Amino acid sequence: MEATQAVKTLKNYINGEWQAPSSDRVEDVINPATGEVIGKIAFSTKEDTERAIDAARQAFDSGVWADATTHERAAVLLKIADLIEAEAEELAKAETIDNGKILAEAEFDVADAATCFRYYAGIIMHPDGETYHVPDNVQAMVVKEPVGVTGLIVPWNFPILMSVWKLAPALAAGNAIVYKPSEVTPMNAQRLFEIFEEAGVPHGVVNMVVGDGPTVGQTISESHEVDMVSFTGSTAVGREIMKAAAGNLKKISLELGGKSPNIVFADADLETAVDYGLFGIFFGSGQVCSAGSRILVEESIYDRYVERFAERAQLIKVGPGLDPTSNMGAIVSEKQLNRILDYIEIGKSEGARLVAGGKRVVDNNLDKGFFIEPTVFADCTPEMRIVREEIFGPVVTIQKFSTEEEAIRLANDTDYGLAGGVFSGDGAKALRVIKKVRAGITWVNDYHPTYVEAPWGGYKQSGIGRSLGKYSLEEFQEVKQINIRLSVEPNGWFPAE
Ligand code: NAD
């Protein structure tokens, strides 16, 4: 395979140049639907990473981007959006081959990436300051400035979209960037950075370093030349980043894991609640931070819900993302596949009732890839590990509740607080309950849609800060007060003679 088909070895993009990482450690990048090698990633060293940080530092301090007008920055962002859109089809296909998700999902991600650049091009043109006429004849102004050198570290589940959620606002705000894609899904990042070059982002303003977390990610997080780290990934790594960032007290933004509740009341439209319940967990093969992985169902409809949910879960066709008849794609890697299969065994041993799925899919030549059946556990109880821990795969737990208070208590019985949903025909009850769910992203009679205008982020151990909307732009900005005395005269506090 490798001998006949040339595979690309990824390079770093530092100070406007494509450079081979200096280490000898090179690993294969795998198409999770077929097991084929689709690229090679060299693992950059600490020195490679420091070179990128230096380039970003110099670019930031030169003011080439930070001092550009909002018109100039917006024009570049709009061009990036146009270029992404112009090759949306190729980018989506590459995303599917790299990550395993079905093409329809990848197409959505790419379209959303273009929208995200347009959105941030738009909001930087809006007024963003304040002024006050304060005592002593002083005009106080509040202005926003870029934070400086920002380190952006992203996961593998939405390779292009999670990257753009950070790159677009960081660039819009005028920062310089050192970006690290996930080593599991790095393929589209190179094309994205070529697009930045084509769109005219000045050299040194965006830098990409490919490699692993403990070397590249850790170097970025520790560096005193980096002013902020924006991270999306697991809660465990988020904790490491927080520690590493303490050295220079850099600003941090953390988008972490979840174990989100999806509450179904007896007065909900059953078919709608089942439909969104399936979408909530099996979209992205469950490898979605906001997945509705804990379904809580009111006692009186519990049996009917479980039966219909299991029946429909079994109708989901699992297969390669490029096959238009597939409803659910591959698991991103063999490591993740094994982790999910382990959790399925844990669920069985804990006494949860397996009502659908539970196995690796190997028929129809799928054995070379990493596929798992949509898996449903009913009769789950709060202390089970499958209820408490983020599995990050197509595995859902269903629990029963009998009162509104119990539903809220079970929903919040988690260390996480990323997302949550409520299904009910009673609008007042739905609003009352969703307001009590301790999570940052919530839906009523709906699950999963995301809008670039609305803040994305979690309570509790699901993170710190918010992506998207004006909130993300503000995260990538410092706020400064400038006080201007309107009458130039001494203040006479200390004796003059
Ligand atoms: P991960 O935490 O293993 O890795 C994420 C990134 O961090 C990768 O680029 C990795 O190389 C890097 N990294 C690893 N160790 C590091 C270290 N010590 N220092 C700095 N960087 C390091 O996560 P993953 O397995 O790629 O992604 C899955 C996780 O991401 C899940 O927990 C999921 O919930 C979370 N996630 C959260 C959101 C959100 O918006 N809250 C979105 C997507 C994914």
TrEMBL record:
Pfam families in UniProt: Aldedh
The keyword Membrane appears for this protein: no
Superkingdom of the organism of origin: Bacteria
Family matches, as InterPro entries: Ald_DH/histidinol_DH (IPR016161), Ald_DH_C (IPR016163), Ald_DH_CS_GLU (IPR029510), Ald_DH_N (IPR016162), Aldehyde_DH_dom (IPR015590)
Active site feature: 255
Gene3D superfamilies for the chain: Aldehyde Dehydrogenase, Chain A, domain 1, Aldehyde Dehydrogenase, Chain A, domain 2
Stated family: Belongs to the aldehyde dehydrogenase family.
Protein's recorded name: Betaine-aldehyde dehydrogenase
Organism: Candidatus Kurthia intestinigallinarum
